[in-house]
Amino acid sequence: MKLTKQLSLAIAGLLMSAMSFAQTADEVIAKHIEAIGGKENWKKVNNIRQEATLSVQGMDIPVVITAINNKATKQEYTVMGMTGYSIVTTDSGWNFNPMQGQTKPEPITQDELKYGKDQLDIQGDFIDYKTKGHTVQLMDKEDVEGVECIKIKLTRKSGNESVFFIDPKTYYIIRTSSKISANGQEVESVVNLSNYQKLPEGIVIAHTIENSAIPAPITLTKVIINGKVDESTFKVVRQ
Q1: What pTM does this model have?
Q2: One-character DSSP codes across the chain
Q3: How many CA atoms lie within 13 A of 223 on its CB side?
Q4: pLDDT value, residue 182
Q5: Cα–Cα nearest to 120, from 83, 157, 84
Q6: Residue range 81-121, pLDDT digits in tens
Q7: What CATH number labels 2-234?
């Protein structure tokens, strides 16, 4: 009887620890969502257009990112008079990069499409994450350039995983780390986020983005929320 009671207490303790662990993760997520403008403001975001500049080797490359929530996204850039783009929709994806000698758009791989479709959620992975079928896990803290960050691992319904590094003072995400497939190999994509600014719509977004796959930071110069977006924007232009 004594052993049974001890086992019962041990199991109860484990269950309480697990519940506390989950609640702690949810508390961090709640503080993060509040810090970036709150759930209600973000759920009003149906589309977004971001104009940005990528400065490389003395050149300022204009970049335009247009997205409709859970439908489609397009990244467009112009270099030396040549315009390239990448498009992802719910069922297909295309790349066109004339700077690399492409003469027509080419379909992306299934792995790239799987990753790209996860990025169609412009309201953010953490908003209603349970309803979306995602799960979260609180991890050990980690230093990011002098900031002891809270780490949350998010596993999406698709199976793709990302780790979010959250500043405990601001509750802004200052880094993300994701495993993506490129050229048949799995690579780590690290994105650093900074220069957070509040928009008139009440949401707060990072205006400086540094991606490990790009040789220079991208700086947002203009952000339009819920403007007019023609869905023809996402049609592939045949050359």
Answers
A1: 0.85
A2: -HHHHHHHHHHHHHHHHHHHHHHHHHHHHHHHHHHTT-HHHHTT--EEEEEEEEEETTEEEEEEEEEETTTEEEEEEEETTEEEEEEEESS-EEEE-GGGT--S-EEPPHHHHHHHHHTT-TT-TTTTTTTTT-EEEEEEEEEETTEEEEEEEEE-TTS-EEEEEE-TTT--EEEEEEEEEETTEEEEEEEEEEEEEE-TTS-EEEEEEEETTSSS-EEEEEEEES----GGGGS----
A3: 19
A4: 63
A5: 157
A6: 899 999 999 999 999 998 888 889 999 998 889 999 999 99
A7: 2.50.20
Determine the Cα–Cα distance for residues 163 and 29; give it in Å rounded to an integer.
13
How far is the C-alpha of 27 from the C-alpha of 84, rounded, in Å?
Answer: 42
Give the amino acid at 83.
T
Residue whose C-alpha is closest to residue 166's, from 199, 195, 144: 144
- 133-to-124, 136, 154, 198 alpha-carbon distances in Å: 13, 10, 11, 29
> What token pair was written down for 237?
């232009």
Asked which of 139-143, 213-217, 233-237 is least confident by mean pLDDT, the reply is 213-217
31-66 pLDDT per residue, tens: 999 999 999 999 999 999 999 999 887 788 999 999
Place of tokens 């199991």: 11
